[in-house]
Amino acid sequence: MSKATKISVIDTEIRIVSINDEDYISLTDMLKAKDGSFFISDWLRNRNTVEFLSIWERVHNPDFNYGECAIIKSQAGLNSYKISVKEWVAKTHAIGLVARTGRYGGTYAHQDIAFEFGMWISPEFKVYLIKEFQRLKEQEQAQLGWDIKRNLARINYRIHTDAIKTNLIPPELTPRQVNLVYANEADVLNMALFGMTAKQWREANPEKKGNVRDQANGAQLVCLANLENLNALFINEGMAQPERLSQLNRIAIQQMRLLTEDHGVKKLEAGE
Questions:
Q1: How far from the centroid of its chain's Cα atoms is residue 61's Cα?
Q2: Which one, of 106, 140, 102, 131, lies nearest residue 30 by Cα?
């Protein structure tokens, strides 16, 4: 069970936890809003309650024990009959109700069932429960969207500043370079993006470990992945190697300019 989130419904603090990626609401907390001395077992013994729970389980739970449920249903409503949540779960293998001990102990119900339980508290309580729950979900979605924007902005802004610092826009290849036939297709991509072959890079950087791609930053690697896909497409189309090299070089220049010149990334980081 995950950490509990809390909402306030008519001055009653109610915990909400996630179980198997589903929201479960504390019936124990909700019961505090009901006038008089009542127990969850009082609600559970009601025939209408059992009928509702059995239908919900039938829709959501393939392992539900219908035989045991039929026995419980036949006894529900009798003055002499009572059943606890733990007994209900043990006998029917229900998943809509959960009884837990510990820090977040108490009886929890799937949100669908909790809303139905809210009606037993009072119609007004049910309305405000649904309203506060929906408000919580809207806040969570808004926060999730902001977190995604913030993280993307951080990554893109880093690519942006690194590219500017290292002047990463690839050089435009000369006609002589374009006409060169490279036996290694990897060097077609290296030439298009870095302006040199792997061998030329090693000769120019004897003190550095690895190869030209090992030294590439995020922007270059993203561009390189795009170029690989495009090169495969060009090869399938039968495009000659010199023409492919020329096309890939132009595309690399365009993509790197977008990363280094697009000021929209700053607006994204600011959450605009």
A1: 24
A2: 106
Give the residue extent of every domain in the chain: 5-121, 147-269
What is the chain's pLDDT, residue by residue, as a tens digit (272 residues)?
Answer: 456 789 999 889 999 998 888 899 999 999 988 876 678 988 988 889 999 999 999 999 999 999 999 999 888 878 778 888 999 999 999 999 999 877 778 899 999 999 999 999 989 999 999 999 998 888 887 766 656 655 554 554 454 345 434 444 567 777 766 555 444 667 888 899 999 888 898 899 888 877 888 887 767 877 888 888 788 788 878 888 889 899 999 999 988 877 666 544 334 334 44
C-alpha distance from residue 12 to each of 2, 4, 54, 128 (Å) = 21, 15, 29, 11
Kindly write down the DSSP assignment for every residue of 108-165, as one continuous string: EEEHHHHHHHHHHH-HHHHHHHHHHHHHHHHHHHHHHHHHHHHHHHHHHHHHHHHHHH
Q: How many CB atoms lie within 10 A of CB 205?
A: 14
d(CA 136, CA 141): 9
Q: Cα–Cα distance between 188 and 183 in angstroms, integer? A: 9
Amino acid letter for position 67: G
Residue 181 carries which DSSP code?
P
Gap between the Cα atoms of 78 and 47, Å rounded? 9
- For residues 96 and 112, what is the distance between their CA atoms, to the nearest angstrom? 9
